[in-house]
Amino acid sequence: MTKVESIKKIALQYENLMLNNTGPSSVDVLQPKKLYKLNIDQSNPRENARHRVGHIISFDPTSETPIKPIPHFPTIETEITNEKYSPSMKYRAVFRKKEDKRILEIWSATNLRQSLKVSDFHEDLYSDSTVTQSEIIWSADETRLLYVAEKKADKKVTAFDEIKENETDKYMNSAKFKQDMGEKFNKKFQPEVYVYKLEENELYRVVNLPEKVIPAFINFADTKGNSIVMTGFEKPDEFFMGLCYCFNKPSDIYFLREIVLEKVKDTPKGPLKSADAQEELALKIKKEASIKENQAVRMTNDAFAIVPILSPDRKKVIYLYGDHQNIHAFTLGLKKFTLELPQDNSAVLRPVAEFNENFNGITGHHELFRNIGWLSDSQHFVFNSYMRGDTGIYVVNTETNEMKRLDQPAYASEDWYLLKIDNDQIIASVSNLIGKPRLAIYSGFDLTGKTIEEVVKGTWHYYDLAKLSPKPLKSENTVKLEDRGKFNEEVLTANGIEAFFWSIKDFKDSKGNVIPDSEKPLVLLLHGGPHFAITGGYNHYMHYLLYRGYNILAPNFSGSTGYGQKHITRLLTKIGEVDKDEVLAVLDLALERKLGNPKKLCVAGGSYGGFLGHVLMNEKPDLFRVALIRNPAINLLHLMYTSDIPEWVFAEVLDRGYQTEVSVQQLIKVWEASPTTKINSEIRTRIQIQLGGNDRRVPPEGALDYYRRLKKHGVQVECNYYPNEGHALTSNMDTEFDAALKRLLFLEEHLPTGYSEN
């Protein structure tokens, strides 16, 4: 196969995967206990587009076929950025963005009721799971909406404008540095809380928020929308450290018993008349008095407290908490308090230190906590968590602290992602490397039971989402693992860590020949963080590697989450040492068992995984044939002064918090921990580095310097540079597809299987 043919073949097959192997990212309730709309993020790499696609299903647990699709063409919405149905399904709130305009629309079941051009008053909504469970919140009586949006930027004033006396400060400050909120929050400086009143079709700003905090995870605390429960991230005066993927930012839960609202309006075009000025002054004095009278009350005293969730009876609040500040991800716990008695703050689940077989504390990324919530009895709470390399769903009795796992994984690495809790039914996406996720709905809690075993007596009902997709128009582009053989998963243990081994057992090439594992290339996949974990949830790229005949080894080395707090902290001050030895031990075990060809090894990893990959190459310069590296944390000294989370280096290398005064000895230790200081000119690995030019987490200059010096040492390395991309290389569909395709083609050229195609 020529290079042109290879590019075309792999591109079409990977496109086919992205078009057909998609799963729901959220669920809307159209009719309680009956109809649900599955919202699927549909990629179109050919047109550099992402669409939100809706599929409707019915659910009846008493039927022989409990889950059924409702025949219809999927609804496709391209301009909608945010939406939320009201509690009774009477209204649907929609934020629509077209060019530079942002419109809030209120729809009934039949037509548009009213709209407001909110771009006159603020920028985009904050919708990332780092700061919200739901970007739009309805009051229970359906008269108000609550959301957080970026403050509208001041109109630029130049020296050549007719500067008014009250605009001189605006001009003088126009070029002053402003610290934004880091990775995934580029150019986000000042979030504000807004309330929209439906009857007036008017927008208001909440003005009695606690001082010097970033508002997050806001929610109405009463039925009419007069009070708010929220998280407040502490905001330093000049330097705000990044929030994305981090759980170490000082934060508390706040209660605003009575919110003070200020109507948003355009800035007056000229000076106020005397009467108007007097009225403005009177309103200002009244507002200041109201703010002083209705100050926010801090309800918690933890190092870290996020995701406050009000119980259905509106009496209790449960939240995630932690007691660490240095490291960025750690084992979390659950606490609760009552709004009337905030001092009645007690732990439901405490952080877990020691590894055990049943539960190792609550861990995971922020997206995993987007849909956690209460059951209707205001006593039982359902949540997601990593556990030994998979993602599980748990229910806990908040009075007795009894807990039970709900999901029923078919594989040790399977992901069960919580999508919705509706009328005590649990809706989840079940995902593994085999292919398209399944939908699972749990029904049948007995909330009258006295023990957790008596409560959890329900049944899971499954629906194959593959039924929603027709066969590809061109069968030669189809990617089907079952045509290659049977998916195989093993858990390997070496040096006290676990690693997943994934392969296609009895793999058949395109001619029907069976290829043993001992002849197949082995990809060593290293996760980032390092306080993260590898799981076996569906992934286009990993799925395609298996289809092409590569085996995968994915270790959860020291520092990984899901194994207890001690497993995490064991890595501090020992990065690139303890984990390196663990990874090499588990790799030796895999090769000893002939689970891959020792002459056909690839190491792959991004961020911290890229750091560890280069540590391994420096240690074993002729071990790997190929390395696939994304935005590697390669120069730690550089990160201390450029990353949006400089405290990460202090934690991992020095085991301490961020400090402005750094000794020479500390600088030397950080420099010596960086792979960039130990370039081994004997490296025989063919290296591909992919970088995002707009990466705030690991700015690319450090890796670019390393790339140049690798070339100077004669190492065979190439660099793909995406100037407008961030850390994950996924913000743009075109980049996401191109970066994946370039990795696959690099493997095809330098580590071909030799048997996957004719």
Give a structural overview:
The protein is an alpha+beta fold and 758 residues long. It has a domain of 223 residues: Rossmann fold. The chain is built from 13 helices and 41 strands. The strands form nine sheets. The protein has an eight-stranded mixed β-sheet with strand order 32-33-37-36-38-39-40-41, sandwiched between helices. Strand 22 and strand 23 form a beta hairpin. Helix 1 packs across helix 13 and helix 9 packs antiparallel against helix 10. It starts with a helix and ends in an 8-residue tail after the last helix. 44% of the residues are buried.
What tags apply to this protein structure?
758 residues, alpha+beta, Rossmann fold, eight-stranded mixed beta sheet, six-stranded antiparallel beta sheet, 13 helices, 41 strands, 19% helix, globular
Write the layout of secondary structure elements.
Elements: H1 3-20, E1 24-31, E2 35-44, E3 49-59, E4 67-69, E5 75-77, E6 80-85, E7 92-98, E8 101-107, E9 112-117, E10 122-125, E11 137-138, E12 144-151, H2 168-172, E13 191-197, E14 202-206, E15 213-220, E16 228-234, E17 251-256, E18 261-263, H3 274-293, E19 297-298, E20 304-310, E21 316-322, E22 333-338, E23 346-349, E24 373-374, E25 380-387, E26 390-397, E27 403-405, E28 415-422, E29 425-432, E30 435-443, H4 452-455, E31 459-464, E32 486-494, E33 497-505, E34 507-508, E35 514-515, E36 522-526, H5 540-548, E37 551-556, H6 565-569, H7 578-592, E38 601-606, H8 608-619, E39 626-630, H9 636-642, H10 647-654, H11 664-672, E40 686-692, H12 701-712, E41 717-722, H13 733-750
Parallel strand pairs: 36-37, 36-38, 38-39, 39-40, 40-41
Antiparallel strand pairs: 1-2, 2-3, 3-4, 3-5, 6-7, 7-8, 8-9, 10-12, 11-12, 12-13, 13-14, 14-18, 15-16, 16-17, 17-19, 20-21, 21-22, 22-23, 24-25, 25-26, 26-27, 28-29, 29-30, 30-31, 32-33, 33-37, 34-35
